Amino acid sequence: MQAQQSLTIEKQLSNRESLNTVNSQYFPLLHYAIAALLFAVYAYQVCPLLASLTPLHLALPIILVYPIRLVLFARVINNSPFQSRVRQQFNLDIALFALAAVGFTLANILTYDAPWHSSGKSLIGILLLGLFVASDLALNSERQLVKYLIANDQQLNLNGGLLSFAKKFSAMAITILVSLGVVIFLVINKDLYWLYGEGSRLTQKQASMSILLEVAVIITTMLLYTVRIIFSYTKNLNLYFSQQTQVMSAVGQGDLTQRVPVVSVDEFGLMAQGTNQMIAGLQASQDELKLTRDASILALASLAETRDNETGAHILRTQRYVKVLAEYLQHHPDFSADLDDEVIDLLYKSAPLHDVGKVGIVDSILLKPGKLTDEEFTIMKTHAQLGSDALQVAEQQMGSNSFLRYAREIAVSHHEKWDGSGYPNGLRGDDIPLSGRLMALADVYDALLSKRVYKPAFSHLQAKEIILKGDGQHFDPRVVEAFLACEEIFIDIANNFKDKH
User: Fold this and answer.
1) Alpha helices of 152-253 — where are they, by DSSP H?
2) 235 contacts 247 by C-beta, under 8 angstroms
3) How many helices and strands in the chain, by DSSP H and E?
4) Are 90 and 23 within 8 A, CB to CB?
5) Using CB atoms within 10 A of its CB, is residue 470 exposed (0-12), middle (13-18) or buried (19+)?
6) If we measure between CA atoms, which residue out of 198, 205, 215, 226 comes closest to residue 45?
7) pLDDT in the model for residue 430
8) Distance from the Cα of residue 255 to its chain's centroid
9) What was the pLDDT predicted at 483?
10) Cα–Cα distances in Å, from 159 out to 142, 147, 163, 243?
11) Which string of DSSP letters, residue by residue, matches 77-142?
């Protein structure tokens, strides 16, 4: 299943519309514009030379590299594999901000003969903004990419190498803390020089307020960016965990067809891949158990057949009649809570064991070619309890098992009657298990249509008339109602699975 869901990178890249969805141009443009504005504010706060330049001059380097981003993104990033797309985008943004930093610094040196400390502040400021911008854009693209892959049922291939999520987060946290310390040091260092010069002409309160304002602006800006990065990381984590949790919850409810989307090339991708392998193993084990169970049913049912006058087609027909009745009553308000798809499948699978108790009946009675005497019929009737007892022993050995429970219910109660005149326990009405009520009508209908040594085969209309006479006496009226609604299907089943003599 996972192989079917995983598409090649070439197929993924053919959907150009999806690429535009994953990376909108407006979000990066907004980030670059804000970074240009913040650099102008930063430059004014940390360096007198930079403060003497116009805001346009300060913002120009970042503004000029954005068109380069548009071109490279369209030609390089959009044509790269999904596995490396986010990493390449991050590297591109860092490289562009580095280009802006170097270009701006060289221009200042050549034009204004800027001192080393002014050049260093320019480099640090632009590079730090680039780190924030590149990180947030990469996290946003990663989140949009994950949503796209999930929505389109696609998965990534982890063979191309992994990029540790923990290492990325640690490196980002350390870089932010170090950068915050460096910038605060630069601001304080600049303010000390200012304080001994221009600041000495101000009052102590004015000088203090000026310094505090500058420090507050820088710290607030960096903290806001830091919070933004942490928020983006958190959203991505929630996205990964939600997918894992949803699938594991479904698996816990028994749905082993679910798989966790492999949508990241880090620990979460490995976790998803390992989870999928575990689920696939569970599904394979469950399929093998079901196959063993079904084979056991057929073996037991076949054993009963070898000692009975009835044919194997009787088993095939009756289990299909039971399924048809159950599927119809699934929508009945009295049964909708009890007849889900899993229960119907269990009824269908366990129906062949309804007469398994006949293996305990002596041949002289079981294979008698004529009608049974009252004494013989009394013995024959014990097959219902014999079958139930045998299945109950198996159920006790295996513990609670829904399949064995339904098989035992059918074996013991398919000869009970709605009015309480049936056997072996004389149950009445809803005290008879629903599985037994369904099997009762299916078994009688098939017996009426089948030729026996003591009677000819009846037509569908004759069988229908007899069943209608038993409405409210032999059969649950709601089951008879289901039979009437599905009688054409009954006819088709009878024709498709005729006895072969």
Assistant:
1) 165-196, 204-252
2) no
3) 21, 0
4) no
5) middle
6) 215
7) 96
8) 10
9) 97
10) 19, 21, 12, 22
11) GGGS-HHHHHHHHHHHHHHHHHHHHHHHHHHHHHHH---HHHHHHHHHHHHHHHHHHHHHHHHHHH
Residue 161: the pLDDT is 65
* 7-45 per-position pLDDT tens digit: 333 344 334 344 444 445 688 999 999 999 988 887 877
Write the CB contacts of 233 (distance below 8 Å, at least 6 apart in sequence). Answer: 139, 169, 172
Superfamily designation of domain 307-496: Hypothetical protein af1432 (1.10.3210.10)
The pLDDT score that the predictor gives to residue 8 is: 38
Task: Please list the ranges in the chain whose pLDDT falls under 50.
Answer: 1-23
State how far the Cα of 230 lies from the Cα of 169, in Å rounded to an integer. Answer: 9
DSSP string, 261-310: ----SSHHHHHHHHHHHHHHHHHHHHHHHHHHHHHHHHHHHHHHHHTSSS
Question: What is the distance between the alpha carbons of residues 419 and 422, in angstroms, rounded to a whole number?
Answer: 8
Structure tokens at 128: 């730090």
| Contact status, residue 292 vs residue 403, Cβ threshold 8 Å | no
Distance between CA 73 and CA 83 in Å, rounded?
16
Residues 348, 317 contacting (CB under 8 angstroms): no
Radius of gyration over alpha carbons of the chain, in Å? Answer: 39
Tell me, what amino acid is at 496? N
CB contact at 8 A, 12 and 154: yes
Place of tokens 């009737």: 381
Helix (H) or strand (E) holding 35: helix 26-46
Q: Provide the residue ranges of all domains of the chain, joining segments of one domain with +.
A: 2-266, 307-496
End-to-end CA distance of the chain, in Å?
A: 44
Angle at 306 between CA 303 and CA 309, to 5 degrees: 130
Structure tokens at 249: 């919850």
Amino acid at site 284: A
What's residue 12's pLDDT? 42
DSSP classification of residue 371: P
Nearest to 259 by CA among 241, 273, 269, 270: 273
- Whether residue 243 contacts residue 260, with contact meaning beta carbons closer than 8 Å, is answered with yes
CA distances (Å), 277 to each of 263, 265, 415, in order? 15, 17, 47
**Which two tokens mark 302?**
């076949």
Residues 446/355, Cβ–Cβ less than 8 Å: no
Half-sphere exposure of 126 (CA within 13 A, CB side): 27
